[in-house]
Amino acid sequence: LLVDDGDQMQGSLLSNLQRGKPVIDVFNTIGVAVATFGNHEFDWGQENLLARTQQATYPYITANIVKNDTGNCATAGWQTPAIASAPYVVKTVGAAPNQVKVAFIGVTTTEVPVITIASATEGLCFKDPATSILHYMDQMKAEADVIVVMSHLGFNDGGYNYGIPVYGDKTLAQRLIDAGKPVNL
After folding, report:
1. How far apart (Å, rounded) are the C-alpha atoms in residues 159 and 152?
2. What is the C-alpha to C-alpha distance for residues 69 and 76, in angstroms, rounded to an integer?
């Protein structure tokens, strides 16, 4: 399965001029199975991002980006925003009797609201990645044989060096292990 962990739509001249459209066209053609968000998906705002995710023939998932349904991110619920299909998806790989069900869950750095323009993340909350994965863990385990975290946190703690206290993939993995709920990948 071909998956993408974010920052798909930014970086090349062609993609920048068309705000990600050519990348989604290519991803549709090559058969991407699932994607999650990086910080650069928000560079051109949510309206453009919604257009790109609707253009995609594959789902965009996010467990830790939710609608700000309370006006306070500390108390926000778990409602998936319009830009995403779901917090996670389960894909079946292989043919019977050797089929394997793989759950993919996506998380994005909590720095995004700080490092992008405010309107790009308006109405969204970026919850703690480990807490978000743990929120869905039992449900995923009931539906899948394998759990894969699609992370756009960065490998090490510290994020993009803006002085924001964020953690990376190593700490995320350790937090899941410490909670007694490690993932396969």
Report:
1. 10
2. 6
Strand 60-61 and strand 124-126: the pairing is unpaired
CA-derived radius of gyration, the chain: 16
How far apart CA 168 and CA 95 sit, in angstroms, is 35
Written as six digits, the tokens of 60 are 């965009």
Residue 66: which H helix or E strand, with range? strand 65-67
What tokens does 122 get? 């308006």
- What six digits make up the tokens of 95? 């043919």
Look up the pTM and report it.
0.94
DSSP 95-120: -TTS-EEEEEEEEE-TTHHHHS-GGG
What are the pLDDT digits (tens) for 69-101?
Answer: 999 999 999 999 999 999 999 999 999 899 999
The DSSP output letter for 86 is B
Instruction: Tell me what pLDDT residue 13 has.
Output: 77
The whole-angstrom separation of Cα 37 and Cα 62 is 7
Which tokens sit at 2?
């071909």
Q: Mean pLDDT across the chain, nearest whole number?
A: 94
The one-letter amino acid code at 98 reads N
Identity (one letter) of the amino acid at 35? A
Determine how many CB atoms are found less than 10 A away from the CB of residue 166. Answer: 20
Q: How many other C-beta atoms lie within 10 A of the C-beta of residue 36?
A: 28
Distance between CA atoms of residues 153 and 38, nearest Å: 8
